[in-house]
Amino acid sequence: MENDIAEEVGVVIRRGLWALSALVVAAGCSAGGQAPEARDAGRPSGACASAVSRDALPTWARGGFSDDGSGIPHVFGERGDILAVLFEYPPKASTDPGDGTKILWVSRLPQQPMRPLTIEARLDGTTTSVTREITGGAGPSSVSLPTAGCWRLTLSWSGHTDTMALTFA
Known about the structure:
Layout: H1 2-30, E1 74-76, E2 82-86, E3 101-107, E4 117-123, E5 129-134, E6 140-143, E7 149-157, E8 160-168
Antiparallel strand pairs: 1-2, 2-3, 3-6, 4-5, 4-7, 7-8
């Protein structure tokens, strides 16, 4: 019975996080927060480049959006199991943990309530690496990486793993 209550509380919290992410999306869209971008800037252009798309979000990632999400920059994990919706594009590097880039992580796969999303980030071509943990798993977050460049991310959540490259300015 105690586990059932804990699971129900986790479900309520996750729903609250999704509602919060919907508000963040609505606020960002109504404030005109999308950065201008050249037509082909979303295409990979080197050995390490974020494959940023502004196409419609997949149906499994549209929760909280009032439309199909067209125009909002996002990056798929290499396996397609997670999506990073970028509310600031390009993401900005910062050594201040309170000055992170807003990213909505959306999992295509089922999640276990309150299990964290762990991000192991390695700066391409260096030995620099950092680990970040998003409490509560995939959902809204603020991610701060210490320097500009291409970061290779290994994302782990609820027993799942995916990878992606994100270029921070």
